[in-house]
Specification:
Blueprint (H helix, E strand, L loop, with lengths): L5 H11 L10 H4 L12 E8 L8 E5 L9 E2 L5 E7 L4 E6 L9 E6 L6 E3 L1 H10 L5 H6 L1 H4 L5 H14 L1 H5 L22 H7 E4 L12 E4 L2 E2 L25 E11 L2 E12 L13 H8 L8 E7 L7 E4 L2
Parallel strand pairs: 1-7, 12-14
Antiparallel strand pairs: 1-4, 2-3, 2-5, 5-6, 8-9, 9-10, 11-12, 11-13
Helix pairs in contact: 3-6
Length: 324
């Protein structure tokens, strides 16, 4: 009987059996297999304060424009928080507690680009509610991937001005100029003073008591029913840009925005009032970026041209933005 060459037979089996290729060869070959480590998803840090007068006890989660959600993070005892959110603004921020029924509380806020600290309270919740067309907020959060492009920064800005205008007297009582107040980024501590004392006095509830025709939101100030005016004038109210504490100079930075849409030229002007003398009035100033986005939103990918100039006074027709 003819003898078989075991080595040749082994090679033939390995060559003929696809599923056996990995199993053939020496132990040394198997040890050379490598595993590719996936690249971590890009994130942005969103920090801020969640308080309704007292620090809010609960958790924070954030969704980016694509509906990707962060991990739930515990809010600290002083109301501050820091969460790593999947990169891609605008972000919808939700603070919630672990209670049920009437004790359950959920607050919302908004950040266009995670560049500034974000407040989460009943006032920011009201602004998100109004900017979304009085949508049911838990549904808005669930559908944020679809709704993020509709709830624009311009709508958020106007809704925030309406909050400040409705509560003008309450802010004036604690020496805060409501006409220059950004409720989303105003720097405060949950210590019962100043801005926080207004939060103590203002209660807003029932944001999810909505159907297709109406909502039943309740407003009280100092324990008394308060009539919220959704058509209140915001003339003279401005969206405050945080200048990092740099004193204003009394000068103004005028930005002209020129775009071409459907063959038509469209021009807009925004004037930053009381602009610091030692701060660049130009495209290199990153603090102007988020505000400029307001004026190019809705252009749909058409590039805009910006022109910067320092002026003694803001011209008529320009949107005035106060520098804090």
């Amino acid at each position: 009987m003819k003898s078989l060459n075991f080595k040749v037979l082994t090679l033939a089996i390995c060559a003929g059996a696809t599923v056996g290729l990995v199993g053939c060869g020496s132990d040394h070959d198997n040890n050379n297999n490598t595993t590719t480590t996936p690249t971590p998803a890009a994130t942005e840090t969103i920090s801020g304060t969640a308080a309704t007068g007292k620090p809010f006890a609960g958790k924070i989660v954030v969704k980016n424009k694509d509906g990707k959600q962060s991990e739930a993070i515990d809010i600290k005892a002083d109301g501050t928080f820091k969460v790593e959110a999947p990169k891609g603004g605008p972000y919808l921020i939700k603070a919630y507690n672990d209670k049920t029924g009437d004790q359950a509380v959920t607050l919302y806020s908004y950040s266009v680009d995670a560049k500034t600290n974000v407040n989460v309270n009943q006032l920011t919740t009201q602004a998100v509610f109004a900017a979304s067309g009085q949508a049911k907020l838990d549904t808005l959060y669930t559908d944020w991937a679809k709704q993020s492009s509709a709830v624009t920064q311009a709508k958020i800005e106007e809704a925030a001005k309406q909050v400040a205008a409705n509560l003008n007297s309450q802010f004036a009582a604690v020496s805060i100029d409501a006409k220059k107040l950004n409720i989303f980024s105003y720097d405060f501590k949950a210590d019962g003073r100043g801005f926080d004392s207004v939060l103590d006095k203002v209660q807003i509830s029932g944001f999810n008591n909505c159907n297709v025709s109406s909502c039943n939101v309740q407003y009280t100030v100092n324990g008394t029913n308060f009539s919220w005016n959704y058509q209140i004038s915001t003339n003279g109210y401005s969206w405050v840009i945080n200048g990092g504490g740099i004193p204003g100079s009394g000068q103004n930075c005028l930005v002209g925005v020129d775009v071409k849409v459907a063959g038509q030229n469209v021009s807009q002007k925004v004037c930053y009032s009381n602009f610091p003398a030692n701060t660049v009035c130009g495209a290199a100033n990153g603090a102007l970026g988020s505000a400029l986005q307001v004026f190019s939103s809705g252009v749909g990918g058409v590039s805009a041209t910006y022109n910067f100039s320092t002026v003694g006074s803001c011209p008529s027709g320009a949107t005035v933005v106060s520098w804090k």
